[in-house]
């Protein structure tokens, strides 16, 4: 089947096609390796459409590396309710549910580009620390220096898990059912969240 060239019937269709193509190219080669020509070819449009819709490759990148799910979909009430000793398991379970549902390609694209772009890193940091961990911790404790220290430890653990599961795809972790991952990593997160983590370092 021949690829369709030139302008697609609708501007929104063209825009979404370019975003999908960019995510795939960024996942394969990162920001530097994804060329405007390759992205346009994958989308089946003229390269000029990238400037038309996004202004530049950088603009397309900013649109493409947004989180592959809506943070508002995170069931925070479910996370913070229930026994405190299961807090980490509920947090990790919701975290894995959202990323697994988004799919490995979307997750890989976000994470690969986050390693190369301050903008993508800031977006991921906002999601991990603000949309998920801070909201969860603030429901059970004051958001002070200790809570921020705990949040950074949890974020580091989750970032490592995302990289190993979706980008490096370490087996058997990459293919492990969510419940197995929760059983193995949950106790570590539980200590970071409400266990002994020492005195917060001076900022």
Report on this model:
The structure is a single chain. This protein is mostly helical and 203 residues long. It has two domains: 11-64, Arc Repressor Mutant, subunit A (Orthogonal Bundle), CATH 1.10.10.60; 71-194, Tetracycline Repressor, domain 2, CATH 1.10.357.10. It has helices at 11-33, 36-43, 48-54, 57-64, 76-80, 87-102, 104-114, 118-138, 145-167, 178-194. The longest helix has 23 residues, at 11-33. The chain starts with 10 loop residues before the first helix and ends in a 9-residue tail after the last helix. 30% of the residues are buried. The model is unreliable at 1-9 (pLDDT under 50).
Structural topology:
Elements lengths: L10 H23 L2 H8 L4 H7 L2 H8 L11 H5 L6 H16 L1 H11 L3 H21 L6 H23 L10 H17 L9
Helix pairs in contact: 1-2, 1-3, 1-4, 1-7, 3-4, 6-10, 7-8, 7-9, 8-9, 9-10
CATH C-level class of the largest domain is: Mainly Alpha
**Helical amount among residues, as a percent range?**
55-70%
Q: Judging from the principal axes of the Cα atoms, what is the shape?
A: elongated
Assign the CATH architecture of the largest domain. Orthogonal Bundle
Distance between the termini: 58 Å
Unreliable residue runs: 1-9
- Please tell me how large the radius of gyration is: 19 Å
Work out the count of structural domains.
2
Which percent range describes the beta-strand content?
A: under 5%
Strand segment tally: 0
Number of helices: 10
Give me the strand/helix succession: HHHHHHHHHH
Average pLDDT rating: 82
CATH topology of the largest domain: Tetracycline Repressor, domain 2
**What structural class is derived from the secondary structure elements?**
mainly alpha
Q: What's the CATH superfamily of the largest domain, by name?
A: Tetracycline Repressor, domain 2
Biggest sheet: strands, sense, closure?
none
């Amino acid at each position: 089947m021949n690829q369709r060239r030139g302008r697609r019937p609708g501007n929104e269709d063209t825009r979404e096609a370019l975003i999908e193509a960019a995510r795939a190219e960024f996942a394969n080669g990162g920001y530097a390796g994804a060329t405007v020509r390759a992205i346009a070819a994958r989308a089946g449009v003229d390269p000029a459409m990238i400037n038309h819709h996004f202004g530049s490759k950088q603009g397309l990148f900013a649109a493409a590396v947004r989180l592959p799910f809506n943070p508002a979909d995170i069931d925070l009430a479910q996370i913070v309710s229930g026994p405190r000793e299961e807090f980490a398991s509920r947090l990790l379970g919701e975290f894995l549910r959202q990323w697994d549902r988004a799919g490995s390609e979307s997750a890989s694209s976000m994470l690969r580009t986050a390693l190369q772009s301050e903008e993508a890193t800031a977006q991921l940091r906002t999601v991990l620390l603000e949309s998920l961990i801070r909201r969860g911790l603030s429901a059970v404790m004051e958001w002070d220096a200790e809570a921020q220290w705990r949040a950074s430890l949890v974020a580091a653990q989750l970032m490592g898990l995302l990289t190993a599961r979706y980008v490096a795809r370490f087996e058997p972790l990459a293919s492990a059912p969510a419940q197995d991952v929760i059983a193995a990593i949950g106790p570590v997160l539980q200590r970071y969240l409400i266990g002994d983590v020492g005195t917060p370092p001076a900022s």
